[in-house]
């Protein structure tokens, strides 16, 4: 056990306090660093996003204002063209009205001159004049025959400078503007021109943010109207295609809001700012990949992580030095405590003079080892005296603190041993007396067991005789039942034959009744025949001599009918006599059948009585068998009691000897009571 404890302590020593302090400190610092790093990274990301979005929003507004300035410049040119006096000669010449009335061609030429100069000076794709229904009046080459409906409707609605929401003109890019030409405050026609796209393209291309940032313009329908990649504009691309279908951002852009948002496009996070271009139906959108600024964020995070790691290393070194200053004296105390747990009570405790809890710990351990030595020596002395039979011994050392429980326990043990030995002495004396009394009772029990055994054997013999007589009664009852069953069978056969005879008589009675009916019919036929013969005789007498032969025949028929009636009457009488006799036979047969049924019922009762008698005999046999088994069990128990009584008699003698030996052993102890006496 000591070896196993030493191995266990050695394994625990392997995990030194120094390593535990260092490990736990490093884990705590690492956990704190990781948590702070994650929080810092998330905070930097959030802060960077907010800063970028907040800076992009004014950039978008400023860029939109730049576009507005360019649009206003184009608008000023268009207003200059519309306000040119050559557009309306009457407005700049008092005699213009008469000249206009006399020479319409001169007005057209003057206007064409204005349009041509404007196209050359202001870099227009085309410029033309349109009437109040939007139809072409005159213009340079390429002017459309009519204005686009939505643009013309807006131009009529505003009755002022209007910019088309689309930048596609005849498969080319351009900015269409329209301006009403007024005369005395009334619009007389419209001038519409398409500026080249370069003006707008220069502004969009000049917006460079980040390495991959781009700017574009879209109208209220979400169709791209300006982009550095002009093919996208010509293809009619939509803002939904460029923004990955982010409906919230598209809705804010197309409703003319100013703002900035972040959303993913094709798996890449994008920072998007937007602002409306006033005076148009356009909004400027700036789109920058977030990855363009990630290297700044990552650099800041790297610096923070490296700083944190440097602080971590310094903290580990400080903690390691502190852990060593604590673990060395603690290890000395731990080694002494391990040797104490292994039973070493003599090795001195190395003292530490640190002026702190470690010094108190070593002094306390030294005092504890000394106290344990004194207590164990005292306990050894007390136990040695008890082992020698001296129960008058008492602890000699003054136990302190919780160790008083040991002193109290020793007092309790000594008192308990004194009481126990006294009890043993009294018990040994009582045991000797009881063994002597038990020896006498064992002899009496042996004699009673012998008598009980003889009585049980006699009872078994008597039960066997009763079983033999009951077997004879059961055999006789069985023979009686067999004879009764034969009588019942004969009676049953007689009943069957009487039933058959009764059925035959019933059949004869029915046939006799049929014969009586037939005889009655014969009488009726004879009577009819007699009447016919009389009628024949009368007819023969009326005929005279010729009817004599027929009269003879009629007489013979009459005689034959008389004899037939007589024979039928005799048959009826005989059948009546036969029916009477048969009725008497049926009654006798019924009486005989009743007697046979009564005999059968008596036979059944005899059978039932025989069955009950046999059942009772069998029940008595079962009871006697059970009684015999019980008596045999009693006899076996009596035998065992007889044997046990003999064994008890022997054991009581041995018990008396053991009681004497126990008394001799108990007398060896010196008790406290004897000292007191």
Automatic annotation (TrEMBL):
Keywords: Cell membrane, Chemotaxis, Membrane, Transducer, Transmembrane, Transmembrane helix
Location of this chain's protein in the cell: Cell membrane
Pfam family of the protein (one): HAMP
SUPFAM superfamilies reported for this sequence: Methyl-accepting chemotaxis protein (MCP) signaling domain (SSF58104)
Transmembrane segments: 21-44, 296-320
Main location, first listed in the record: membrane
Domain Methyl-accepting transducer residues, every copy: 427-659
BP GO terms, sorted: chemotaxis; signal transduction
Record's GO cellular component terms: plasma membrane
Membrane topology note: Multi-pass membrane protein
HAMP domain mapped to chain residues: 324-377
Family per similarity comment: Belongs to the methyl-accepting chemotaxis (MCP) protein family.
Protein name: Methyl-accepting chemotaxis protein
Organism listed in the record: Schaedlerella arabinosiphila
């Amino acid at each position: 056990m000591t070896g196993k404890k030493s191995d266990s302590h050695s394994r625990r020593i392997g995990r030194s306090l120094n390593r535990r302090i260092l490990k736990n400190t490093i884990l705590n610092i690492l956990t704190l660093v990781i948590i702070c790093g994650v929080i810092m990274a998330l905070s930097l990301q959030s802060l960077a996003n907010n800063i970028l979005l907040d800076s992009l929003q004014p950039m978008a507004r400023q860029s939109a204002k730049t576009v507005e300035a360019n649009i206003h410049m184009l608008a000023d040119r268009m207003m200059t063209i519309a306000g040119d006096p050559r557009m309306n000669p009457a407005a700049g010449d008092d005699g213009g009205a008469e000249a206009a009335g006399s020479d319409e061609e001169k007005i057209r030429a003057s206007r064409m001159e204005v349009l041509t100069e404007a196209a050359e000076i202001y870099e227009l794709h085309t410029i033309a004049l349109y009437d109040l229904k939007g139809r072409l009046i005159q213009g340079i080459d390429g002017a459309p025959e009519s204005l686009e409906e939505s643009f013309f409707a807006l131009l009529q609605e505003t009755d002022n400078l209007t910019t088309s929401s689309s930048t596609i003109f005849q498969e080319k890019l351009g900015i269409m503007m329209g301006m009403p030409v007024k005369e005395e405050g009334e619009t007389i026609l419209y001038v519409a021109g398409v500026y080249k796209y370069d003006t707008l393209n220069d502004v969009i291309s000049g917006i460079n943010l980040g390495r991959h940032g781009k700017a574009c313009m879209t109208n209220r329908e979400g169709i791209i109207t300006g982009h550095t990649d002009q093919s996208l504009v010509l293809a009619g691309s939509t803002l939904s295609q460029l923004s990955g279908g982010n409906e919230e951002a598209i809705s804010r852009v197309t409703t003319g809001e100013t703002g900035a948002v972040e959303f993913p496009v094709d798996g890449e996070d994008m920072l998007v700012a937007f602002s409306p271009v006033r005076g148009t139906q356009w909004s400027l959108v700036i789109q920058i990949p977030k990855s363009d600024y990630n290297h700044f964020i990552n650099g800041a995070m790297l610096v923070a992580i490296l700083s944190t790691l440097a602080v971590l290393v310094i903290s580990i070194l400080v903690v390691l030095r502190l852990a060593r200053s604590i673990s060395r004296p603690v290890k000395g105390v731990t080694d002494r405590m391990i040797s104490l747990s292994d039973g070493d009570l003599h090795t001195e405790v190395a003292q530490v003079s640190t002026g702190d809890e470690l010094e108190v710990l070593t002094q306390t351990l030294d005092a504890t080892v000394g106290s344990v030595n004194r207590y164990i020596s005292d306990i050894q002395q007390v136990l040695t005296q008890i082992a020698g039979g001296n129960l008058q011994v008492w602890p000699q050392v003054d136990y302190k603190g919780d160790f008083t429980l040991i002193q109290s326990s020793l007092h309790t043990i000594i008192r308990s041993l004194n009481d126990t030995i006294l009890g043993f002495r009294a018990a040994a004396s009582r045991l000797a007396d009881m063994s002597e009394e038990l020896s006498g009772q064992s002899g009496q029990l042996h004699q009673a067991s012998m008598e009980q055994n003889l009585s049980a054997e006699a009872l078994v013999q008597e039960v066997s005789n009763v079983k033999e007589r009951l077997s004879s009664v059961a055999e006789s009852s069985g023979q009686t039942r067999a004879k009764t069953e034969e009588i019942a069978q004969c009676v049953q056969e007689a009943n069957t034959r009487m039933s058959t005879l009764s059925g035959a008589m019933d059949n004869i009675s029915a046939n006799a009744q049929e014969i009586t009916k037939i005889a009655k019919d014969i009488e009726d036929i004879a009577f009819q025949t007699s009447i016919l013969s009389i009628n024949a005789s009368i007819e023969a007498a009326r005929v005279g001599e010729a009817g004599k032969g027929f009269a003879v025949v009629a007489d013979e028929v009459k005689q034959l009918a008389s004899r037939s009636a007589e024979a039928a009457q005799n048959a009826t009488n005989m059948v009546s006599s036969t029916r009477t006799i048969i009725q008497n036979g049926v009654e006798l047969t019924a009486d005989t059948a009743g007697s046979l049924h009564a005999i059968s019922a008596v036979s059944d009762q005899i059978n039932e009585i025989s069955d009950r008698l046999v059942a009772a005999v069998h029940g008595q046999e079962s009871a006697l068998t059970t009684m015999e088994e019980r008596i045999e069990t009693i006899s076996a128990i009596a035998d065992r009691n007889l044997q046990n009584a003999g064994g008890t008699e022997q054991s009581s003698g041995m018990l008396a000897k053991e009681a004497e030996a126990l008394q001799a052993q108990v007398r060896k102890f010196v008790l406290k009571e004897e000292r007191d006496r």
